[in-house]
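for the record, two folds in this file. i put them one after another cuz i was lazy. first one right below, seq on top, structure tokens after. the second one comes after a little note so u can tell where it starts
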Amino acid sequence: MKDQVQTIFKGWAKPGPVPPAVPVAGEGESCAALCGHFWVLQLENGHRFSTDDALTAWYGTSWAPTVKTGLDLGSGIGTVGMICAWRCPGARFVTVEAQAESVALARRSAAANGLVDRYEIRQGDFREPGVIREEETFDLVTGSPPYWPETDGIVSEHPQKRACRFEVRGSVVDYCKTAAKHLATGGLFACVFPHAPHQLERLQQGAREAGLVIVRKRPVIFREGDEPLIAVFAMMRAEDLPEWFRGQTWDEPPLIVRTKAGAYHPEYSAVKLAMGFQP
């Protein structure tokens, strides 16, 4: 198989395992390179994986103390969960997604990427009892919550687009509460959310209500000179931290995606390498 696979792409050597197959896109679908030799199926006119998702996976796998088990909330087409699984090859993952269409795409992608034995995709609303069992805990929980209430914009008629952008099934508060409930001792919850002041307040409120401490956050600037639009956050349960540590957050310098000239910023190119992307 390896002899038949393109391991060098534009001078970059693709790292990581070679999966059994490349997913086959059907009508109205496309197949996109995800990380290393992994691919992801997505609708041509639906939710497509984004920088936000990739950075959530990178941040969580970079700062979790250990990852033997992982949980991805609102997993969509599987972007975050599969990148996490690629970066943590010995870990087992559970992902939860409510939309049947997204679940079907994710299952086909996971099978082609050779993840079936350690990657369980559940269909359902993670807030509903039994979707995640009461006793289940995970070293790493990830999530890319929808950013806005349905009253805050023009809601798309496409169910995938609507659910990934607007709070159709809960808000960032629900993500924080579910993550806190299912974190293993000393585990970490990583998520992405807008950086605007009123949005930061919403996330901070969610963390407080869930008993979480934002131990570090990093704003993301998409073009040098602009204001940060989003940030990635790493949280732990307050009860797992010394009391003196519970009231502080390490604010990292912004991660710049592109320079003023439009090229990828040197640090972001290095981040892409760490995620199995072409720099």
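(here's the note) second protein begins now
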Amino acid sequence: MKTKHFALVCLLVTAAFCAAQSAPKPETSDANQSAQPPATAASQAPEPTPPPAKPSAGQPAPPADQTQNQSQGKDSQGAKDAANETAGTSATSKDRLFFAMPNFLTLENAGHVPPLTAGQKFKVVAKGSFDPIMIVWYGALSGISQAENSEPGYGQGAQGYGKRYGAYAADGTIENFFVGAILPSVLHQDPRFFQKPQGSFFDRTEYAVSRIVMTRSDSGHRQFNFSEIFGSAIASSISTYSYHPGRTFIGRNSDGIPQYTASDRTLKNTASVWGTQVGYDTITFVVKEFWPDIRRKLKKQHP
């Protein structure tokens, strides 16, 4: 794992561990119910139903059962529309890790939720991949990479920084789409992370780590996480052999012999990038598991 990734994930895991030791218990439904004021008689009284309009002269009045069926049909259709709207909003979240990074595919205490359609998978991945905060994120990673002079074939200066920025943005976007949208749609797998609501710190950590190799199918069954393992491998191969620097001429030495940088387009480097992505995603799952506890603690300290 690269130094910049290692430093970032260590900071996140440390914060998660500290928050888990003093995580507050979630409020019970009884408390929520008791907090609700009792309904008054006025609120329980049904509203008067307006009388049906009288038919015009010469027009026969519709039968009473037909009018009732039409009313019931409208009510049933309205209930279906409301249910569909609720299902669509509960399928993903609007959460952000540390109130900044997109966390739209993580659900807390989800229970039984409807599966995502292929269109929804692509939509939510695109929403997270092109979120404005990602501009800052890729900019920071590019700056660290340039300071370390990693992948020297990119060079230095503004041109080298621009190449590194483009590579980081492309790497993240390609992996997000293969892992969260393309393969999950083809293989009918669920790209969401479902937080474990109960258990000790180690139980929940073990569960989060296991999500890198295990996931749900769209039908709710437990499956091997082909989307994560093979999706990140495909993304690593595309990035390594397409736009990452190859053997680059950097000048001549004192004897006039040309000097070149080593090519990054090798199978060894592809495997290294794949391992880094899988390792980073694994630790991200752990952070996602404990982030709700951290969020509740922070909100309690700063009401």
